[in-house]
Amino acid sequence: MLRLVLLGRPGAGKGTQGRYISKKFGVPRLVMSDLLREEVHKGTELGKEIKRYMVEGKLVPDKIVYQVLRKRLIEVKEGFILDGFPRNLNQAEWLDKFTQENNAELTAVLYFNVDEIAVLRRIMGRLMCKKCGRSYNIFYDPPPDVRKCECGGTLYQREDDHYEKILKRLDVFNEETKPLIDYYAKKNLLVTIDANKGIEAVKDDVSSILDSLLRR
Ligand code: AMP
pTM of the entire structure? Predict the structure, then answer.
């Protein structure tokens, strides 16, 4: 069974690779920002508070994140792929405690290593569909029509995908998330992947890494 953490700058391709792993190896994905956005869409007081942090590209406070994640983490039985969590040392320690208490030790932490310039190119070109949630990239994977998704839904750019917000998110990664690379390396869980390569090349690397982890 695979229990994975995907680590990397915003725009490193964690979403794309996570979907690929989920399909190929039959492991459910838990995408922290999607779980938080679900809460925002419910329009609750908690949702409103979460939104204030997310539109600024700041981390949502740990206590809220734990509350939202715990509910889902205890439901999944076929392993998990965590995308976007943990994002700081406190969260990593919380996850250690959770995995120990639930006999669900991590298999590996995949670190998708990508340059900041590549991140800007990827995220600034990103368009999302309001209806089906699919994402396009105007440079690499353009939609058939700049206004509409294949499903007919309207396309939009995420508020936190604007230049200044991306820089803020990169700063947050460098300051808060980067220390996790060392943290997981010391635990012998870290596998670094060159995520500057194209999507298919990264998929091949991911696939052979996971095959060998499952053979262990
Ligand atoms: P992402 O789509 O993964 O880049 O996340 C978008 C935003 O969701 C982040 O900028 C944060 O505001 C929030 N977020 C996602 N994951 C976490 C987390 N583990 N801790 C705190 N905030 C998070």
Answer: 0.90
